[in-house]
Write a structure and sequence with these properties.
By secondary structure, the protein is mainly beta. The chain has a single domain, classed as Ubiquitin-like (UB roll) (Roll), CATH 3.10.20.90. The protein is built from one helix and five strands, in the order E-E-H-E-E-E. It has a five-stranded mixed beta sheet with strand order 2-1-5-3-4, with helices on one face. A hairpin with a 2-residue loop joins strand 1 and strand 2.
Amino acid sequence: MNKPSDVQLEFATPQGAYSAAFDKNTSVHDVIQQVRTALQLPSDAAFELWFGDKRLEPETRPLNSFHLPNPAKVTLLATGSGV
């Protein structure tokens, strides 16, 4: 069960759809790392988190600073060479 301080994120990822709740004070970087671990995404690949056409950056900012709806549909994109 989600706490009132949680934000439900619905991800589109290279591995398909994924959904999880995160504390609103979780940094974007930590969200990416947790999803990477949960989906066993390659550790040597770089990823970015997007909400619509807006990249959630800098990755050190917490989720609540982006004023996302709850739930929010986000996209985890692989970036860098070889993508």
